[in-house]
């Protein structure tokens, strides 16, 4: 400006006036630009600081097998990095260790008994038609809500109520197509042949999950050749669209793995040494709990629906190693997709205004207590990974951890408060924001989970259909029944044990109480009780209920109060 002022003295009056006008115009434009930039910044702050975006990451069947939770095997760098920039909940518990009820509970903020959703074959709105789900609540508070992958349980996705933003599949490159289950044609053919065999042999009963192909696959293919990598491609395109809007977004990113079948590209299998896996498996207690409930464990029904798994008896050690290997490969595979999606938020310049919530719907037995699968009331099936990362926790640069007892039902009020929107008035959980601010805060004295008799339920927690006894599972069912009859000779009743028996599990700081209740009576007296002392028995190997009657009485009263 000094140079400009000096030059004006040597030019004509007209030129001076023209230059003055130009300078004024330039100044006005600069002012307008500054005002516009300020307005944009103010709008952005109103959009992000007052109502944060939410990346809602769900994972299917993932136990606490992550580096962030101390796993000596799992390679999960993306989730571990997320944990280092957020708060890790060391003791988080699912309300029920099966997909449908767990997800229905999380997404509505209501417990399985309240919803009357305790198996996979009932819609979560069957009792409460107008219950507001998490994304529905966000939409009502000014958000766009979209998802890719598995958020709700398959078959009950609530498309018409809970989502208003479509997945951007139409924007994918032409060479990326929605994949089938297997990438190898030989396995697709094997699945077709096996399924035909099951239908020919068992008729209608086969449609409830029999006749699957191999339990594992590790083809040398790109990530998008399997479902979670494909969904990551769709998530990229969808987030690009959401980030352009003048509304904040709630985006659900649902991983299908490590749900069976355990399928991941070869490069993720290559991360692991089978000898180390074998050594780790050798340390797992594969025995049933001493003095435990005969109905507390199933016969690995779901895994046995696959063509290469023995229908009966123990799974050979080498196959166990292979199965564990495949599960770990799936963990690394979905970890890569999660890392990619978080990086996409950063590329879109919205990470600094986004809350990230990561959870698994339940845990999983990998030979623990002699079974493979979810669907139990024990620690290994009910405890889950749960991590929250916010703009504030990331800015602090300090990894947070809490040992507080929390439940997945707490997600709904927590994410609402973190996003700075009003609380829904129907939820049964509690916001965990105070714990994020102070991880050592005194918190709940217990976490409540439940599961109907796992031993005499199908793998979707549905009571045994009559035709199931006619399949190759018949012998397994008879074996389980005989064990129950032996333990409860005077109480055996098929209807009671197959349809009316519910196990309620109360996890306190020191103990796990499992009370097996007849849901058709009003009596508070359980049919059987299990008590595990985590101070002396963290793997829940010995039921000490008979040795600690006072503890059982105290915890039963606490459980009764919680169930009222």
Automatic annotation (TrEMBL):
Keywords: Calcium, Hydrolase, Metal-binding, Signal. CDD domains: iduronate-2-sulfatase. Residues 1-29 form the signal peptide. Residues 53-421 form the Sulfatase N-terminal domain. It holds the Pfam family Sulfatase. Its cofactor is Ca(2+). Belongs to the sulfatase family. This is Sulfatase. It comes from Catenovulum sediminis.
């Amino acid at each position: 400006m000094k140079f400009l002022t000096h030059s004006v003295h040597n030019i004509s009056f007209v030129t001076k006036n023209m230059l003055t006008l130009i300078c004024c115009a330039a100044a006005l434009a600069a002012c307008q630009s500054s005002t516009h930039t300020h307005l944009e910044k103010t709008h952005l702050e109103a959009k992000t600081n007052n109502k944060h975006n939410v990346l809602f990451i769900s994972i299917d069947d993932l136990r606490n097998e992550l580096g962030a939770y101390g796993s000596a095997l799992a390679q999960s760098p993306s989730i571990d990095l997320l944990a280092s920039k957020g708060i890790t909940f060391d003791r988080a518990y699912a309300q029920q260790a099966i997909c449908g009820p767990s997800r229905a509970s999380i997404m509505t903020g209501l417990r399985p008994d309240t919803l009357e959703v305790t198996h996979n074959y009932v819609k979560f709105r069957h009792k409460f038609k107008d219950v507001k789900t998490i994304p529905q609540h966000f939409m009502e508070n000014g958000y766009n809500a979209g998802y890719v992958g598995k958020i709700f349980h398959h078959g009950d996705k609530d498309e018409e109520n809970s989502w208003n933003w479509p997945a951007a599949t139409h924007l994918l490159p032409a060479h990326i197509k929605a994949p089938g289950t297997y990438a190898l044609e030989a396995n697709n053919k094997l699945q077709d042949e096996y399924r035909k065999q099951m239908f020919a042999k068992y008729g209608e009963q086969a449609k409830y999950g029999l006749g699957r192909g191999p339990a594992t696959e590790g083809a040398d293919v790109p990530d998008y050749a399997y479902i979670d990598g494909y969904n990551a491609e769709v998530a990229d395109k969808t987030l690009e669209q959401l980030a352009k809007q003048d509304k904040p977004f709630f985006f659900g990113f649902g991983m299908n793995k490590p749900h069976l079948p355990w399928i991941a590209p070869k490069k993720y299998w290559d991360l692991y040494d089978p000898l180390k896996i074998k050594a780790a498996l050798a340390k797992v207690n594969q025995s049933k709990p001493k003095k435990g409930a005969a109905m507390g464990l199933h016969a690995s029904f779901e895994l046995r629906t696959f063509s290469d798994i023995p229908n009966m008896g123990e799974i050979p050690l080498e196959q166990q190693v292979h199965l564990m290997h495949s599960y770990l490969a799936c963990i690394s595979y979905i970890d890569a997709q999660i890392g990619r999606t978080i990086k996409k938020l950063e590329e879109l310049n919205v990470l600094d205004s986004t809350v990230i919530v990561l959870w698994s719907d339940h845990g999983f037995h990998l030979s623990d207590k002699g079974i493979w699968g979810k669907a139990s009331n024990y620690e290994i099936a009910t405890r889950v990974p749960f991590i929250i990362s916010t703009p504030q926790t990331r800015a602090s640069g300090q990894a947070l951890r809490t040992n507080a007892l929390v439940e997945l039902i707490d997600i709904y009020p927590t994410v609402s408060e973190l996003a700075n929107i009003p609380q829904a008035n129907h939820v049964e959980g509690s916001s965990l924001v105070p714990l994020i601010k102070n991880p050592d805060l005194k918190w709940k004295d217990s976490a409540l989970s439940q599961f109907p008799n796992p031993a005499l339920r199908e793998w979707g927690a549905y009571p045994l259909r009559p035709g199931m006894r006619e399949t190759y599972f018949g012998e397994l069912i008879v074996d389980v029944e005989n064990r129950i009859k032996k333990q409860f000779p005077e109480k055996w009743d098929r209807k009671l044990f197959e349809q009316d028996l519910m196990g309620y599990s109360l996890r306190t700081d020191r103990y796990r109480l499992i009370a097996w209740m007849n849901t058709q009576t009003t009596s508070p007296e359980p049919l059987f009780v299990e008590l595990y002392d985590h101070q002396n028995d963290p793997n829940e190997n010995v039921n000490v209920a008979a040795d600690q009657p006072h503890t059982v009485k105290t915890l039963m009263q606490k459980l009764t109060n919680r169930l009222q």
